[in-house]
Amino acid sequence: MIVLPQLLFLFQSLPVEVPIKQFNEWNRTISRFIWQNKKPRIRYKTLCLPRDKGGMSLPCLENYYKAAQLQYVVYWCKEDYDAKWKELELNQLDIPLQPLLGDKTLKTIYSSKLSDLTKIPLNIWFKEICNSNLERKARLLRWVEHDRDFRPAQLDMRFKELTRKGITSYCLISSDTGLDSFQQLQENHDLDKKDFYRYLQLRHHFDRNIRILKEGDLDLIDILIDAYKGKIQRKVVSRLYLCLQLYKKLSTSYVKCNWEREANIILTEDDWLNICEINASTTSSGQWREFAWKNIIRFFITPRRKYLQSGRTESGHCWRQCNNVMAGHCH
Ligand SMILES: *[C@@H]1O[C@H](CO)[C@@H](O)[C@H](O)[C@H]1NC(C)=O
Ligand SMILES: *[C@@H]1O[C@H](CO)[C@@H](O)[C@H](O)[C@H]1NC(C)=O
Ligand SMILES: [Zn+2]
Predict the structure, then answer these.
(1) What is the dihedral of CA 188, 194, 195, 200, to 10 degrees?
(2) What's the predicted TM-score (pTM) here?
(3) Between the chain's N and C termini, which has fewer beta carbons within 10 Å?
(4) Measured from the CB, is residue 69 less than 6 Å from ligand 2?
């Protein structure tokens, strides 16, 4: 709790690439501190999970770093966010920077002209988009004029004009139900009647190549779309962080499996999450919460485990002298 804000401040202020080696080292330092140089009894990855999923909410510094860098990408898309740095960054190419977010090839084309300041967030962005399988959905972030797959925009100079009228990103002129109607665009963006044919071209392209079915969880693309639509106000970094954590697909299912094996029962995923959640929220005593957590996460060294480790029969006896041998976690 003390270290995180200090590092976060650096992550947000310094446009540097932090090598993976450094995160490894921090991971090791933190782990050594938690376990006081003894052998870790619970996976580090498990500790990083949120409490209601059976973890200890230990911050993942790597994702905080990424979230801090991606924050700037969010501000690029947020029209009402004004800053000197933003103008400098957005005007370094002969096209705006935002369309790059939806098209990796476009970014590669301009790659050599980008400053380090923008290259780092962009690289992180594309890596995360790829990891979380969002490349298709990212097309929503392309701009009509700069969409390389939309031929009419390259042939017809009128689309430049339309950009000026606010026909920029697909996500701004569409909703879950599809591209906005011509009437809507006419009202909001002052289109001419003679643009109707271009609208049909655009809608055809949108329905075939851009449109995507709405899916459940909040993801990185949603955050940028919210930014475009002026919806995000605060807590950008923590929203980004949550999304990044979600994609790691970590879970405590392996602990659940151990319980199932030991008790010879079947627990559904919901049962298990319920147990974790209840244990994390039942009592206001931190000490008891920790104890409950240690129980369900199988932290303690049972007589059985002791016996298996040492091979001595007497270590398999329950320490409360109830004559139980080889007691496991259920005991
Ligand atoms: C550090 O720990 C986090 C949390 O489990 C993990 O996701 C990350 O990959 C680790 N970083 C490195 C560089 O190993
Ligand atoms: C933790 O979960 C177990 C299993 O559901 C339950 O028996 C126990 O009462 C819970 N402990 C707390 C403190 O909520
Ligand atoms: Zn006993």
Answers:
(1) 120
(2) 0.86
(3) N
(4) no
